[in-house]
Every structure is written in C-alpha cells, then in structure tokens.
Amino acid sequence: MSGVVWVLFSTFSTVALFAIGGPSALIPEFHRQIVTNLHLMTDEGFIHSVVLSQLAPGPNMLFISFIGWQVAGLAGLLASTIAILGPTSVLAFVAGRFLEGRKDVTWIKAVKTSLSPIVVGLTVSSGLVTARAADHDVVGIALTIGAAAFMVAYKRNPLWVIAAGAAIGILAYRLGWMAVG
Amino acid sequence: MSQSPPETGASSPRLSLWNLASGFLIIGLMGFGGIAQSAQYVMVEQRKWLSAKDFVELFGVCAVLPGGNILNASVMLGDRNHGPLGSLVCLASLLLAPLGLLLVIALVYDRYAYLPDVQAAITGGGSVAAGLIFGTAARLAKGVNPTIASALAGVATFVLVGVLRAPIWAVIVTIAPLSVLWAIYGGRRA
User: Residue A75: its chain B contacts at CB < 8 A?
Assistant: First the structure.
C-alpha cells in the first residue's frame, strides 16, 4: 500500500469508531484531518466532494469513498470505503448478536437521549465548517441561509434544493455576481 | 414499557439470501437524497422483512452505534438470517449500486471540472449543502429534551468542535459520558 493510501486508511478507520450522528455530524473532523492536518485536499476539493457525493444514491458515508478517490484514485476509494465501514460493521455485528432476543431497550433510549444534543452540536459545527469552506461571497451566504430556511420549512428531497443551488450558481456566475476558481 | 410477546428471534423463518441481496440492492439504488425512507419502504412495506415496530427498534440500536444506520442494519439483518456470510452479502449488495454510480460521477467530474459553468454549479451546490446541514441541525434540535443539561452539552460540543476545532474523540470521551451519567443519575429517567 502506498503512503497516502495507508494514511487514508488509518485516519478514516480511527474516525469511524467515533462516528456518532452519521457523516453530516463528522464533517468538522474529516475537514480537520484531510484539509488542515494532512493537507491532502484544499477547501475547494473538500466541498466538491461533499456536493458530488450527494448526487449518488445510498449511504451518506460514501462521501468518504469520494474523498478517497479524489486523493488517491481507485486504491484510495477502496481503502477509504473499507476503513470507514470495517470497524463499525464488526462492532454492529457483535452488538447485533449481543442484543439478539433482548427486547429491553430502555438503556438504548437513555443513551440516545443523552447523545442527541451532542449530535445537534456536531451538526451545527458541520454547517459552520462547510459554510466557511464553501461561501466566498454574498451569493454563497444567501444560498446557505435560503437552503437552511427551506429545509426547516418544507420536507422535500434535498437533491432538488442542491439542483436549485447549482442552477443559481451558474446564473450568478454568468451575470458576473460570483467569481469561480 | 411495552410488553413484547415471549417469542425468540431464532424461531422466525429465515429470509433467503437472494431476497436480502436483491432488497438491499434496491434500497441502495432508490436512496437518492437520503436512504432512510427507501430502507423503510423495502424492509417494512414491500418485502415485509420486519414489522414497523421491529424496524424502529433496529434503527434505534443502529443510531446509538457508531457508523451509518443503514449500514449497521444491513450487517445485523444479514447475520440474523445467514450469519457472517449474510452480513457480507447484505453490506455488499447495499453498496454495489451507490459505489458504481459514485465512480461514474467521479469520472464525469474529472473530465468536466475545468468548465467554469461546472465550477459555478458545484460552488452553488456547496453553499446549499452547508444550509441543508444547518437545517438538519435545526430539525434534530426539535427532538432534543429541552433541559439545561442538554443545552449545555449541545453548546459545549459546538464550541469545542465548531469554533475551537477540537478533534471529535475529545468530545466523545468527555461530554458524552457526562451526558449519559446525567441522564441516568441526574435528570428524569427517559
């Protein structure tokens, strides 16, 4: 395994074990590791991975697979995917066997209740980190605020909102309101 | 709270490997913009693998474990029916279509990323993605018990991770155990 592929593997498999609240809660951690510490990607590349991985169906964790691809091609994609799925799948396997037949789930409710504000804190952090990396001007900030308001007010498939944002992005660029690159 | 009938999990009829594999393939394919709905549709309504109550219980457990909910659920359902082989088959079937499509998207992106219109579209999409995450946070916050302890936990997490950019393990080993202890000894029982 080449150096960078191993770095991806070891980084993501460690983060995976702390992955409560799903990938949208983990963006600050991935950004901290990939952009700030390891310099494997720029802010721009990171945001592109966030957006493009939304276009594929399936588990949101594939965002990590996409980052692996961007950093180290097919080997990076496979290493990242296995790293993010491997440790948690083994844990799920063990937990599933342990819980089989035990229908008393009060402790699960207690843990879930106490973790939920932490997940909210992590998700707000994700929004902030993403907005800082993505928004370069007034158009970007307006799109972020608009999308947040839309998400709160309506229950629609987020893909349509991203498509609308892409269309507005092109329009703003053509009208000269937004710089690119 | 609810008394479940004295049934043992092992006695329920096994789902065939093909049934599970094709079901998870469809869940993966249908999950555009969020996979929870397609999982619920296939598992409960279409294929009747689980009752609505079992589905909620399974996802409750998966939400507490690290990792993606649906990924964990595929591992557990596979094992219940066919052991470790079942887990591998379910996980692989779930990932097959999304990973394939992701590769196609990556190849198209690598080819056309230089075009200014494509750059502008992705930049707009990125700003929207940030907003969607804020919106998700707002929705999640509605489901949190409005207590001082949970407000403290949420704000402390945000300050540490969002503002000070502390590593996530620092939060998990400090705030999470305190929060769980508070739930058990301090506050009302959930």
Answer: none
Residue of A nearest to B151 (CA): A117
User: Under 8 Å CB-to-CB from B154, ≥6 apart: which residues?
Assistant: A117, A118, A120, A121, A124, B141, B144
Q: How many residues does chain B have?
A: 190
CA distance B46 to chain A (A): 18
Question: Looking at the domain assignment, is residue B1 inside a domain?
Answer: no
- Is B107 inside any structural domain? yes
Residues 6 or more apart in contact with residue B188 via CB below 8 angstroms: none
Question: Which of B101, B161, B164 best probes binding to A when mutated, by most A CB atoms within 10 angstroms?
Answer: B161
pTM for this predicted structure: 0.85
B120's CB contacts (< 8 A; 6+ apart) are A169, A170, A172, A173, A174, A178, A180
Out of A58, A91, A135, closest to residue B31 by CB: A58
Nearest residue of A to residue B56, measured between CA atoms: A105
Closest to A16 in 3D by CA, of A93, A121, A89: A89
Same domain, B71 and B140: no
- The 10s digit of each residue's pLDDT in A72-116 is 999 999 999 999 999 999 999 999 898 876 666 677 777 878 888
Question: Interface pTM (ipTM) of the complex?
Answer: 0.89
Residue B169's domain comprises 125-190
> Of B66, B95, B116, which residue is a domain's last?
B116
Distances, alpha carbon A179 to alpha carbons A50, A153, A170, B80, in Å: 20, 30, 10, 53
